[in-house]
């Protein structure tokens, strides 16, 4: 009965959410620069794909039949569903200023608003990219308006995936509220599942290559969905007679929308109005004061480092960006499973070096000033010098990296790494960790970000995306090159000649120089820091 | 007779092992200004959240003007809630924020436009109304949040430390506004640590201590009952009833 009312207020909320999204980017030069960086990094692959797709289009121009893409339509739809679930869990499942909004309007209106805003966001990002790609294909095939028709056909499909994905995401959030998972166990479990999937799928592929062809996307094609997608080709040489497919899809969208909205509203009400029991149930009582163990107790910087480590262990969610390191596991799993068993120990140890380096470079140091914004009035007024504070963060980060390095190294020893390599890799890897931490400190200090974002239900300050991207292209790549060279040396491919030694010296110089310079720039920046500089 | 503006029956809230509110029975008549006092952590904010339905009670019930607080759609029109930290969107200007709330509540935009201007003027916000809220001072935010709370003329106002961060002039404006609303029949339930505010405004005060209502009555009555001594102040009374648990009945 109140649907009309909720639709009206819902569209208002959507409108406001979108305006806030746009403003939060445009009103801040740093965010704007970030958006540009992201745009460019998306544009690059698109511009590479464009001519390829034009060529594909040209190749089908001669024939009047489409290449077999029915399965891809299903895959893309599933992909969009997963994207929506992810977005719901990580971002749009939460509302800002819930006290205001929920005491003002019905939760259903809020759900409609958040979904509506997300729909527009996905249309102008994913949708527009898809439109460009289809246009490329269409240009080749002689139907340049294909991008537009595809966009129009895709629009309701986007709506459907978002509405249904929202139910899925909300369901997960409510489940999490109900079961009161321990977040740390959840994170560890997630990482383990991820590792099993990454290695398992690679093993599967390498063992049963034959079975893969049977898994071609065509086998999972959903006929009506494909028929609906073909509406985009109407009035082109590829047009097929329109069957009942579009009708079925239309019906599904129309029927499932109010249903999904109702379920979402119920779930959302439960999720939003729940009190977070987690903060209280497990008694967060720590007896005794703050007393770092030896070696951390030796210096004020060690004191700072220990504080950072303790806080990270208690609230790992505040450092969620470090988990991006795990994206490298999938390609690594490929290399690992395809290598002979005798190489496994060494490969694992080398992978550990990269992982440790990335952890050292991302934890505590990739946003050393931004992360402190809230405590800055305190921190700037203590007797700790900026140098000590930053050194503490570097020590903390390096310690975390060395812990990773050591654990993966021991694991590698157990599966056949020889002791000589372990003894060599350990100090080199630790050096990588230290260098990464030093370098990141400067990088993060140059591009601080104090904006808090709601991620996974907690307000966290994450490093600026620009800093993360630069980090990817410098530390990740640098560490990978270094590890490949190490591998060549350790597996005896590269004999130690003066040229090789010269190369290693050069590499070290390229690593150490910028790392130190970067760290010193961070110290200088911190020393001249005032409150206004960060908050503004 | 019309139902009490605020009524709770054995309202209880626990967080894990922490008992935030033991068993609260309130019955507040319409048009009253009720000063809700208590030391930090006594359970004042918890009570307010329960009264808005933003938090579910562990047991017990609450209703505003006879409407159970679980009935979200009706409660939204009845209650105006100002939380401890002002719920504002930094990306909006003050005026935009208020107009947004007007829209969300589906109030008549033309009619409220005038009201908004009046209130902005009343609280000296005209000059800053078109600046982004992210650039406001603490007190400016608090004032905008107060205005947005009263825009729809709710019969019941829940104000959690409304004078926090306000300068003396703004605090005066706010107190005058509350008194005006009360005269017009609004019920005001307000928590504060600033006792003079309560002494000046409240018809009734309730003192919460460790999740339990340990004193209730007119400011004078509470003051008298706590201290036999003739020239005791409300502050003395507050300190007395919230120091020793046996002060309770
Ligand atoms: N989300 C929560 N999780 C766990 N405990 C909570 C939560 N919210 C409140 N509490 C506990 O409930 C009790 C009452 O808190 P409440 O915020 O209502 O106090 P208050 O009277 O508003 O205090 P103050 O004057 O400091 O604002 C406290 O012991 C607090 O620790
Ligand atoms: Mg409070």
Global geometry of chain B = globular
Quaternary status: heterodimer
Give the overall average pLDDT of chain A: 84
- The radius of gyration computed from the alpha-carbon positions of chain A, rounded to a whole number of angstroms, is 26 Å
Beta content of chain A comes to: under 5%
Strand order of the largest sheet of chain A: 1-2
- Spans of at least 5 consecutive residues with low confidence of chain B: none
Could you tell me the mean pLDDT of chain B? 89
Report on this model:
The complex is a heterodimer of chains A (536) and B (249). Chain A has 20 helices and 2 strands. Helices cover 73% and strands 1% of the residues of chain A. In chain A, helix 2 crosses helix 5, helix 14 runs antiparallel to helix 18 and helix 16 runs antiparallel to helix 17. With 249 residues, chain B is of the alpha/beta class. In chain B, 37% of the residues lie in helices and 24% in strands. In chain B, helix 3 runs antiparallel to helix 4 and helix 3 packs parallel to helix 5. Chain B is globular, with a radius of gyration of 18 Å. Classes of the chains: A mainly alpha (536), B alpha/beta (249). Chains A and B meet through helix 1, helix 4 and helix 11 of A and helix 2 and helix 3 of B. The structure holds adenosine-5'-triphosphate (ATP) and magnesium ion (MG).
């Amino acid at each position: 009965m109140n649907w009309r009312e909720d639709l009206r207020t819902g569209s208002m909320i959507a409108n406001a959410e979108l305006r806030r999204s746009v403003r939060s980017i445009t009103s801040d030069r740093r965010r704007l620069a970030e958006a540009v960086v992201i745009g460019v990094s998306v544009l690059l692959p698109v511009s590479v794909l464009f001519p390829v797709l034009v060529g594909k289009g040209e190749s089908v121009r001669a024939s009047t039949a489409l290449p077999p893409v029915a399965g891809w339509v299903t895959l893309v739809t599933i992909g969009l569903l997963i994207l929506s679930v992810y977005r719901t869990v990580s971002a749009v499942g939460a509302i800002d200023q819930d006290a205001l909004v929920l005491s003002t309007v019905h939760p259903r209106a809020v759900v409609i608003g958040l979904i509506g805003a997300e729909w527009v966001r996905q249309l102008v990002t994913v949708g527009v990219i898809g439109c460009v790609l289809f246009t490329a294909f269409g240009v080749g095939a002689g139907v340049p308006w294909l991008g537009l028709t595809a966009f129009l056909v895709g629009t309701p499909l986007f709506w459907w995936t978002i509405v249904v994905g929202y139910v899925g995401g909300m369901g997960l959030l409510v489940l999490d509220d109900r079961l009161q998972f321990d977040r740390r166990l959840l994170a560890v479990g997630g990482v383990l599942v991820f590792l099993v999937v990454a290695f398992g799928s690679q093993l599967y592929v390498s063992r049963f290559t034959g079975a893969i062809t049977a898994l071609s996307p065509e086998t999972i094609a959903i006929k009506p969905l494909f028929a609906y997608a073909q509406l985009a080709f109407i009035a082109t040489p590829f047009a097929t007679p329109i069957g009942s497919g579009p009708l079925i899809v239309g019906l599904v969208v129309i029927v499932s929308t109010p249903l999904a909205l109702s379920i979402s509203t119920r779930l959302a009400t439960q999720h939003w109005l729940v009190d977070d029991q987690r903060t209280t149930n497990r008694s967060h009582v720590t007896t005794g004061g703050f007393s770092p163990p030896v070696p951390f107790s030796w210096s004020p910087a060690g004191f700072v480092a220990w504080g950072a480590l303790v806080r990270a262990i208690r609230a790992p969610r505040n450092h969620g960006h470090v988990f991006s390191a795990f994206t490298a596991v999938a390609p690594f799993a490929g290399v690992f499973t395809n290598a002979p068993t005798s190489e496994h120990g060494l490969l694992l140890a080398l992978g550990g070096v990269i992982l440790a380096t990335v952890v050292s470079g991302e934890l505590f140091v990739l946003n050393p000033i931004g992360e402190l914004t809230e405590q800055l009035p305190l921190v700037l007024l203590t007797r700790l010098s900026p140098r000590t504070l930053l050194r503490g963060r570097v020590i903390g980060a390096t310690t975390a990296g060395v812990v990773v390095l050591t654990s993966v190294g021991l694991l590698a020893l157990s599966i056949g790494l020889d002791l000589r390599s372990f003894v060599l890799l350990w100090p080199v890897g630790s050096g990588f960790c230290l260098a990464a931490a030093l370098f990141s400190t400067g990088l993060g200090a140059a591009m601080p970000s104090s904006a808090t974002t709601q991620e996974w239900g907690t307000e966290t300050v994450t490093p600026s995306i620009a800093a993360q991207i630069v980090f990817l292209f410098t530390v990740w790549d640098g560490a990978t090159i270094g590890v490949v060279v190490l591998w060549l040396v350790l597996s005896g491919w590269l004999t130690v000649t003066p040229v090789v030694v010269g190369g290693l010296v050069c590499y070290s110089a390229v690593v150490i120089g910028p790392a130190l310079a970067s760290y010193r720039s961070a110290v200088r920046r911190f020393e001249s820091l005032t409150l206004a500089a960060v908050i503004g | 007779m019309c139902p009490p503006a605020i009524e709770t029956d054995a309202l209880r809230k626990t967080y894990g092992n922490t008992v935030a509110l033991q068993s609260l029975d309130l019955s507040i008549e319409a048009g009253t200004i009720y000063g809700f006092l208590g030391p930090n952590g006594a359970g004042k904010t918890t009570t307010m959240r329960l009264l808005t339905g933003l938090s579910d009670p562990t047991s017990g019930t609450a209703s505003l003007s006879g409407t159970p607080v679980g009935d979200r759609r009706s409660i939204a029109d009845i209650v105006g809630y100002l939380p401890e930290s002002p719920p504002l969107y930094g990306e909006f200007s003050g005026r935009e924020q208020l107009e947004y709330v007007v829209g969300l509540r589906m109030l008549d935009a033309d009619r409220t436009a005038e009201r908004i201007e009046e209130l902005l003027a009343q609280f000296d916000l005209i000059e800053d109304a078109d600046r982004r809220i992210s650039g406001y001072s603490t007190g400016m935010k608090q004032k905008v949040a107060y205005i947005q709370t009263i825009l729809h003329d709710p019969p019941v106002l829940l104000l959690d430390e409304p004078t926090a961060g306000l300068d003396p002039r703004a605090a005066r404006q706010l107190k005058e506004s509350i008194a005006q609303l009360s005269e017009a029949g609004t019920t005001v339930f307000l928590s504060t640590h600033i006792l003079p505010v309560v002494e000046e405004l409240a018809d009734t005060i309730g003192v919460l201590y460790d999740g339990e209502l340990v004193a209730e009555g007119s400011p004078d009555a509470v003051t008298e009952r706590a201290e036999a001594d003739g020239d005791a102040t409300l502050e003395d009374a507050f300190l007395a009833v919230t120091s020793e648990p046996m002060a309770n009945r």
